[in-house]
Every structure is written in C-alpha cells, then in structure tokens.
Amino acid sequence: MDKTRSKHGKARPWLLWLAIPIGISTILVFLVPNLGDVGKYIYIAITYNLVTTFLYTMINIPYGAMTSLMSRDQNQRMIINIFRMFMAQVGALVINACTLPLVNAMGGSAHQKSWVIVSIIYGVIATALFLLCFAKTKERVAIQNDKSKKLSFGTSFKLILKNNYWLLLVGIWVSMVLGMSMSMSVGTYYAKYILGNENYAGFLGALGIVPILIIIPLTAPLNKKYGKRNVALVGSFISILGQSLMLINPGSATWLMVCTVIKGVGSATLSGTMFAMIADTIEYGHWKTGTRVEGMLYSSTTFGAKVGAGVGGAVALAIIGAAGYNGFAAVQTPSAVKAIKVLYLVVPIPFMLIIPILYGLYKLDKIYPKVIEELRQREEGQQKAM
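User: That's the sequence. What structure does it adopt?
Assistant: Structure tokens below.
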C-alpha cells in the first residue's frame, strides 16, 4: 500500500480491486467438493486462509489506513473512528444473530446447500459494501513519498521503530489483547465448572459488547473536550476496576455480569480512540522521519495484536492442560479449577495495569497542532520549489 500510486489514492483502490475476489472467495469456503476426507481438509485449509489470512488482510489494512488519508483534523478522524468501531460491533451482532436463522430458513444446518446460499448472500452484501465505501470516500491527504527513496520492507520497518508514540500504542493494544485473550480462552470452562452453566459464557461476552455500543458514540464530545489520550486513560482505570471487582464474588454469575458491564464501559473508550490515535502517529512519523508509511504502521499494529491474541489463547490452554484439565472428565481436578480461576480473574490484571502506564507516556495530543503546522509548511515549501 505504501508503494501504491493510483488516481484513486493509496488505500481506496485496494477496496475496488479486492471487493469482488473477497466476495467470491467467501462463497468458495462453503462449496466443499466431495474429494474424500483428506481432499476436503486441504480444500478448506486453502479457501479459508484465502479469505481470512490473505484477501481480508489485503483489504482491511488499506481500509484502516484510510482514516489517516481522509483527513488530518483530529476531531474528524475521531468521528470516523467512532463510526467505524461502532458499526463493527453492530455488524458482529447482526451476523451472530442472523446466520443460523438464515441457514435454517434455507433448509437447515445439516444441508450444505443452505450454507452455500447464505454465503452467497453475505458475499454479495460484502462486495456491494466495499464498492460503496470505495465510491463514497475520498483521500484528501494526497502525499506521495519521494520516488528517489527506496521504500523497502526493511526501510519501512526501521522508520516505524523510530515512532515512539506508535510503539506506545502497540504496547497498549498488545497488552489489552494478551490479557483479554487469556481470560476469554477459558471463559467457557469458567462458566461450566465455576458458575455451573456454560451458557453464561456467551451471555457474559454479549454483555461486554452492549456498553461498548452505548458508550462509543458518547466518547466523541469527551474526546474533543478532554483529548483522546485522557479519555482512554480514564477508561483503562475503569476496566481495571471492573476486573478487580470480580474477585469479590467470583462464584456469582450476577455479580460477574455487573463487573463485565463496568469493564465494557472502560473498553469502549479504548475502542473509540485507538485507530484515531494511530492515524495521529502517522503524521508524527512523517514529521519526524520525512516519510509516510501508513500501510506499514497499520499492518504492524494489527499484526502485533493478532500475535498477542494467538499467543495468549495458546498459553492459557497450555496452562490448564498442564494443571490437569481433562475435557472428558465430568469433574475437574482442584488444580485445573484453580488454574481456570486464576486465568479468568487474576491474569488479566497485570496486563491491564500496563495500559495506563503507557498512556501516561503518550504526549502526542499536546504537540499535534505543531506537528501538522510544520508539515504543512514543509509541503508548501516543496510545492514552491517545484
């Protein structure tokens, strides 16, 4: 994306190029041919990764980077980010609520045809929405790097490592994801063996989303008045409070629901600010190094979060396995139950404590007006020189 030069911009053309391929590949996942067990597994591995690992990454990173290319104004970026994160939660809720009813309406989940029809519906909608996004957006920050500079992967990576405020945001996101993934990985086990009903796991997960949907739109005036960093900093303390309160009555599903809502309020401030703050670090990196690398910044941020999620989940499951968890046993050993409790209740807290410390070091909001003003002066000087 950083090397893309197109009349449509740097990020927008990727939505145009990949809208149809990602829609088609979504359908291909469910068109599993009768190739025998091994053949089916190979087919699924290829088509599933084609969608989620390859094409989705290629379209999602430019889509995320568009925040920094549509405007340099902090408040406008904040609004863009809030709408983006709010609708992402709405989309997830709609898909989770509608998929199985749609499949059942098309003939039932036991029939491949039903899944294929639903995948066609989703694929067509996805393609249409990507094309609509392409058609109705505009890159207003049309800055191209000097063609004489060789922008290799190594060079781009070295540039982002000089961006200290971006590194702080990566640390915040990875810390948040690590703590969250280790807790969520054992959520079903906690609900089953401590709360006595595994259905509570899904209910607790949904309760965490509800306050995010309510609070994210409300962060806009707060961010404008107090600054994104300050709002997110307060939110991080609210999340810590919600997690810590769980320790008071960890065996009560009702109490955990209350604590989950409190955590969700805190998480909303992080979701409502993170990508807008990353967009600000792009301008800071450009100001500091003289080169814009939106694609590398966004891809490295999401890569770090995905690695954190994968590592966190794997470590959590490895721990309960080492503690003696047996999925076939009706009753778990005391050591396995203790491991599940510690992972769900205690382990997230140290990771959550790192977040406000890192926010305390983030000072970009204060110097951002100076950064933008000096960038504009440079660009005006370059235009006059041309």
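The CA atoms of residues 284 and 371 lie 6 Å apart.
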